[in-house]
Design brief:
It catalyses: L-tyrosyl-[protein] + ATP = O-phospho-L-tyrosyl-[protein] + ADP + H(+). The chain has about 775 residues and is α/β, with parallel strands linked by helices. It is built from 21 helices and 23 strands. The chain folds into four domains: about 60 residues; about 170 residues, no CATH class; about 210 residues, no CATH class; about 230 residues, P-loop containing nucleotide triphosphate hydrolases (Rossmann fold, 3-Layer(aba) Sandwich).
Length: about 775
């Protein structure tokens, strides 16, 4: 007879380990309880952790910076561009100033932000500000860290450090004298509950709150500034924004008024000087008239006097402008006033000079701001000083030109006046001298009146000065915290909860190199897999007969399926040999129960123990007699019937045990008496099952295999190293065993372990088509 097969070009994987998505999904399903426990623990830890985090809120305010029209800033930018100086956006400068340490420090001082209040909680403390039931005022300067707890008792008393005090009392602490005041509107929720009070240095508080303030443009192309404040208390964030805008507004007004105040100081100084000079001239005129007994100043030459009066008026105006211009020129040349603002008196100098002085004063104010924030070594301050010096030189040159022009005009007017005076020489000398004194008096009076008017104008400017900003949006924002994000933490915890057991299981899978089910066998070999024997119960020994015609459990059905598959792939096969890679893979258990399964189908079966070294089947059956396979092969017995045990494990299953262990089992198995024995057994039985030794331990399996028609290679699930499977495939391709097939023992079918288990009754794809005996 001939055994044929057809290869369908099945691809065999190299020895290794691959995990696909289905493996992972089935791994999760198979170990769902570990995943559920891990996710539960991680979610619980994440939830508890989020409860300990302090919520962070964000509040915003929007402010419009008015920069439209021609102003001092545009004059500054134009002058700096002409002189090669540094220019920048006015709005960007205001955004920087809003976050300056000086402004934030003033906000801290106004709001007493160096003192913070908290309510104790189980997971975390809650920050209080406007909600605090008490307010602690520190009387003495104290710049170190200080912490205490105040517990309100009622509307009159509280305790601190275990001592009872009344609200408003001054008490002595290590931080100096303090006074605790009550906020009655918040008391009801905090009676008997301690409030933590912490004080830090104002500098530290300013640095902390400055970090929570940011500025940005509210929109592209706009001059609206969005001020954002983040913190752990909404009311405090709103208070900080309001106070910051107020302090910034006051600073702008103070800067603008500083020019007017400096101008007022200059005007007051000049009024005092001119007033004294006017008094001296009037006293001189009075003395002159008394000495010369002059009652009036009228005389002859009315026509000349009218012309002279016109020229005197013109000369008077020019002399007034010249006097003020020279005073400003002296002010510019005074080195002690280099860092002071230049008085800007309208009406003196042309429009260009006045614009230059205005631009200089605005730049000086910005320089003083930068100097206060960063010091004299700041490159921007040094560049600004250089620009100021250049602008002062330009203004001085412009004043020189203006004074020269006045001198020329004044000389021309005086020349005309001298010409007129020469025409009236007939006028009495006393009248001429009187007119000279009166002229001086008029000059001083005009200058005095001019300065008084300028002082009133300057005072009016001080009264109506306003900042160039407008609050568009008062502090607003959501009452929901922007951080932390519990959903993010819980989602991350959920992912970690899945990843931990998944990683552990994958590591276990990577570390485990044993065969894990039929998928490994099908992936790494082309050897037909005839059946899977499920794991038997722990109380079942190797000699247990689990097959019964009255049972339909999973393990009984697996042996029936193995029987059917053997009949399917090789219908006329009668001699079956069982072997394995190493001991302990269950070939004796499988061979015994397969014999019973075949016998149940109405066949006569003989189970031959060909393991002449360990006598496994003999030991399982408890047979100790001396006659058996060894005595037959050695020629001591020729009668087969005399060495057979009838119906020991099943009425239709006979057994042929080893008998005494021979000293030369391999040589006995190589004798032709083995073929003779098999032929004799074929006459008596439908199936002959040979329970042989492990194939990779001794050579007996290969020797006995010459009489086998079908080799059943038993592999225990989870025991054989799958790296051996390519070697088994090589033996199969080289034909080392007759018609090699595999039986997977101890398969965890019901668990579908690692995605490799398959349920029974759904067919098998072997990659081979088997013919029948011919």
């Amino acid at each position: 007879m001939e055994y044929t097969q057809e290869n369908n070009e099945k691809t065999v994987k190299e020895s290794g380990f691959n995990i696909n998505l289905r493996d992972i999904v089935e791994l999760i399903i198979a170990n769902w309880y570990w995943f559920a426990l891990s996710v539960f623990i991680c979610l619980s830890v994440a939830y508890l952790y989020t409860r300990t985090l302090v919520p962070v809120y964000q509040r915003q305010a929007v402010m419009l910076v008015k920069t439209g029209g021609k102003n001092a800033n545009s004059d500054i930018s134009a002058m700096l561009e002409l002189q090669g100086g540094i220019t920048g956006s006015g709005v960007e400068n205001e955004m920087f100033i809003l976050r300056s340490h000086q402004l934030v420090r003033e906000v801290v001082n106004r709001l007493h932000l160096d003192v913070s209040y908290e309510k104790d909680g189980f997971f975390r403390n809650t920050s209080l500000y406007a909600e605090s039931p008490v307010e602690v005022n520190f009387i003495d300067p104290y710049h170190a860290y200080y912490h205490t707890k105040v517990t309100p008792l009622d509307v009159k008393n509280y305790t601190i450090l275990g001592e009872k005090y009344a609200y408003g009392d001054t008490i002595q602490t290590e931080a100096g004298r303090i006074v605790v005041n009550l906020k009655p509107e918040n008391l009801s929720a905090y009676i008997g509950k301690p409030v933590s009070v912490t004080r830090i240095s104002p500098e530290t508080a300013a640095a902390i709150y400055k970090g929570g303030i940011s500025t940005s443009l509210a929109g592209k192309g706009t001059t609206m500034v969005q001020i954002t404040c983040t913190g752990d208390n909404i009311s405090r964030a709103d208070a900080i924004l309001n106070a910051l805008i107020n302090v910034y507004n006051e600073t702008i007004i103070e800067d603008k008024n500083r020019i007017a105040v400096n101008t007022a100081k200059f005007i007051d100084e000049r009024i005092a000087v001119i007033g004294k000079e006017l008094g001296d001239v009037e006293e001189e005129l009075t003395d002159f008239k008394q000495r010369n007994r002059i009652i009036g100043s009228e005389g002859n030459g009315t026509q000349f006097l009218a012309e002279s009066s016109r020229m005197k008026t013109e000369t008077l105006q020019m002399e007034t402008e010249l006097s003020i211009a020279q005073s400003i020129k002296s002010y510019l040349l005074d080195a002690t006033r280099n860092n002071q603002l230049i008085p800007n008196v309208s009406g003196v100098g042309d429009a260009s000079v006045q614009s230059q002085i205005t631009a200089y004063n605005e730049l000086m104010l910005q320089r003083n701001h930068l100097l206060a924030e960063s010091g004299a070594k700041n490159p921007v301050v040094q560049t600004t000083d250089k620009n100021l010096a250049e602008m002062r030189t330009v203004i001085s040159g412009s004043m020189d030109n203006y004074i020269k022009n006045l001198h020329l005009r004044l000389e021309k007017a005086r020349a005309v006046e001298r010409q007129i005076n020469s025409e009236i020489q007939a006028v009495p000398k006393q009248e001429k001298m009187a007119l000279s004194i009166i002229r001086q008096q008029s000059i001083k009076e005009a200058l005095y009146t001019f300065l008084l008017n300028k002082r009133e104008e300057n005072a009016l400017q001080l009264a109506v000065t306003e900042a160039n900003i407008r609050v568009v949006e008062s502090p607003f924002g959501s009452n929901a915290p922007i951080a932390p994000h519990p959903t993010t933490f819980l989602l991350a915890a959920f992912v970690v909860g899945l990843a931990i057991p998944l990683g552990i299981q994958i590591l276990i899978m990577l570390w485990n190199t044993s065969v894990r089910g039929r998928k490994d066998i099908e992936d790494y070999t082309t050897i037909p897999l005839l059946g899977e024997i499920p794991s038997r119960k722990e109380d079942m020994a190797d000699d247990a007969i689990v097959v019964d015609d009255k049972k339909n459990d999973l393990i009984s059905e697996s042996f029936r399926l193995l029987r059917a598959n053997i009949n399917f792939v090789a219908k006329d096969v009668r001699v079956l040999m069982f072997t394995s890679t190493m001991p302990g893979e269950g070939k004796s258990f499988v061979s015994r129960n397969l014999a019973v399964a075949i016998a149940i189908a109405g066949k006569k079966v003989v189970l031959v123990d060909t393991d002449m070294r360990k006598r496994t089947q003999s030991k399982l059956a408890g047979i100790k007699h001396k006659d058996g396979l060894s005595t037959y092969l050695s020629g001591q017995h020729n009668d087969v019937d005399s060495i057979l045990d009838k119906g020991l494990i099943h009425p239709s299953v006979d057994s042929l045990f080893v008998g005494p262990i021979p000293p030369n089992p391999s040589e006995l198995l190589m004798s032709d008496r083995l073929e003779k024995l098999i032929e004799e057994l074929k006459k008596r039985y439908d199936y002959i099952i040979l329970d042989n030794v492990p194939a990779q331990v001794v050579a007996d399996a290969a020797i006995v295999n010459r009489v086998a028609e079908l080799t059943l290679y038993v592999i225990r699930d989870g025991q054989l190293d799958r790296r051996y499977l390519p070697e088994l495939e090589r033996l199969h391709k080289e034909g080392k065993f007759n018609h090699l097939c595999i039986v997977l023992n101890d398969s965890h079918i019901e668990k579908k372990k690692y995605g490799y288990g398959y349920a029974y009754g759904y067919g098998y794809g072997y990659g081979y088509k088997y013919g029948e005996y011919k």
